[in-house]
């Protein structure tokens, strides 16, 4: 048995890059920063905060959602799998890239704090009347 599963909670480093490939399929790439807080060792040595940057790829509907609602600084939960690919750069050297292929995403930034459009809601014009004691006796 084997398992390739990644779960990240972090902040978007820059606005996502969205492209449309064959047959209008959306793809998005974003950078996600995750941080481990700093701490002090018993000897008094300070260990600084450590930030890791992750390249996340999203496809189809997730990419369309990212294009519309996700912006730099937003907090996201990403669930997916690791994929490593290689390519040859301009100098002929082989380079390796590790990416997270997202399968699920949750936006954790409140809408008011993000750049996402606010939904419009309207209050009912009149409130429902309160029941009279004469109408019906409450059993409890």
What does this protein structure show overall?
This protein is mostly beta strands. It has a domain at 6-37 and 48-107: Nucleic acid-binding proteins (OB fold (Dihydrolipoamide Acetyltransferase, E2P)), CATH 2.40.50.140. 7% of the residues lie in helices and 47% in strands. It has 1 helix and 8 strands, in the order ββββββαββ. The protein has one helix spanning 60-69; strands at residues 6-12, 17-21, 25-36, 39-40, 46-47, 50-59, 75-88, 94-107. A 5-stranded mixed β-barrel has the order 1-3-6-8-7. Strands 4-5 form a two-stranded antiparallel sheet. β7 and β8 form a beta hairpin.
Please name the fourth-level CATH homologous superfamily of the domain at 6-37 and 48-107: Nucleic acid-binding proteins
Report the major sheet: 5 strands, mixed, barrel
Please write the CATH class name of the domain at 6-37 and 48-107: Mainly Beta
Kindly, what is the distance between the CA atoms of the first and last residues, rounded to a whole number of angstroms? Answer: 56 Å
Helix content: under 10%
Strand order of the largest sheet: 1-3-6-8-7
Attribute tags:
47% strand; two-stranded antiparallel ribbon; 1 helix; 140 residues; OB fold (Dihydrolipoamide Acetyltransferase, E2P); mainly beta; globular
Q: Short description, anyone?
A:
The protein has 1 helix and 8 strands, in the order ββββββαββ. It is mostly beta strands and 140 residues long. The protein has a domain at 6-37 and 48-107: Nucleic acid-binding proteins (OB fold (Dihydrolipoamide Acetyltransferase, E2P), Beta Barrel), CATH 2.40.50.140.
């Amino acid at each position: 048995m084997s398992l390739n599963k990644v779960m990240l909670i972090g902040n978007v480093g820059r606005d996502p890059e969205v492209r449309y490939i064959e047959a209008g399929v959306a793809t998005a790439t974003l950078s996600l920063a995750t941080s481990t807080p700093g701490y002090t060792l018993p000897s008094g040595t300070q260990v600084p905060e450590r930030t890791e940057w992750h390249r996340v790829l999203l496809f189809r509907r997730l990419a369309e959602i990212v294009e519309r609602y996700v912006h730099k600084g937003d907090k996201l939960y990403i669930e997916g799998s690791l994929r490593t690919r290689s390519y040859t750069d301009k100098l002929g050297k082989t380079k390796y890239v590790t990416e997270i292929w997202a399968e699920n995403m949750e936006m954790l930034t409140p809408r008011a704090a993000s750049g996402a459009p606010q939904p419009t809601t309207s209050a009912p014009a009149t409130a429902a009347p309160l029941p009279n004691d004469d109408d019906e006796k409450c059993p409890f």
